[in-house]
Amino acid sequence: MDLRFSTLLVYVSAYALVACLAVCIATGVYYVAEVIEENTQKVKKLLRYCILATAGAHAVLLVWDRQPLTCVLSGLLAQGAYYQLLTKNFPYISFTSPTTLFSGAALFVNQLAWYLHFSDTYETIEYIVCFCLAVVWLVPLVLLLSVASQDGVLPGAPGAGPSTAGRANAQDALYGGPKRGFLLQVFYIVQAHTTPYIKLFASYLGIKLGRKGARRDI
Fold it and tell me: What is the per-residue pLDDT across 118-168, written as a single tens digit (0 to 9) for each?
C-alpha cells in the first residue's frame, strides 16, 4: 500500500471536496425548496405537466425503443400514483395515507424494474443515472421538495385536521413555521441540533457568530 505523504494529502483533499460539494448541493436544494414553497400553485401545474411528459416519454420508449413492457407499465403506474397526490389540499399530504404509501411502493417497483433491465445491458453508469433521473426520479424529487406534512398544518389551512390544533405551536419552533415543506422541516431540524455545536466550535476559534443571517420565521 502506498503510504506517501502526497497520497494522504490527496485523500484529505478529496474528502474536503466531497464535503464542499455536499454543502453546495444542500444550499441549492434549500433555496429551491424555499422558492417552491412560495409558488405552490405554479409548482402544482408544473408537476402535472411533468407527469404527463414523463408518461408520454414512457409511451415513446415502448414504441420507439422497444423497452421492456414491465418497465413501461410500472412507470405509467407510478405516474398515475403521483398524479393522485395533486389534490386540492396540495402541498399538504399525509405520509401514512394509502395514496402516499402506494406512490412510494410504485416508485420502488419502477426503479427495481429498470434496475433489473439495465443489469442485463452494457450501458455506462452515467447513461443509467441520467436516464433514471429523467424517467424515474424527476417527478418524485419535485414532489419531495414540494409536499408538506399534513400533521404540521395549522387549523383552518387547506388540509388541516381537527387534531392539529394542539400540536401547532410546539411544531412551529422546531419546524420553522406553520407552512414549512417536508425538506425545509428537515433542514430546520438539522439546523436546530447543529447550531449549538457550531457556535461552540466557533468560540474555540475565537469567532463570534452574530444573528445577522438568522432565519426569519413566516
Answer: 998 888 999 999 999 999 999 998 888 887 655 544 444 444 444 444 444
d(CA 172, CA 154): 10
Cα 218 from Cα 216, distance rounded (Å):
6
Q: In degrees rounded to 5, what are phi and psi of residue 19?
A: -65, -40
Please give the DSSP secondary-structure letter assigned to residue 162: G
Whole-model pTM over 0.85 = no
In terms of phi and psi (left: phi > 0; alpha: psi -120 to 50; beta: otherwise), the region of 75 is alpha
CB-CB contact of 209 with 199 (8 Å): yes
Q: What are the two backbone dihedrals, phi and then psi, of residue 62, each rounded to the nearest 5 degrees?
A: -75, -45
Say yes or no: 49 and 139 in one domain: yes
Residue 26 inside a domain? The answer is no
Domain range for 81 is 39-146
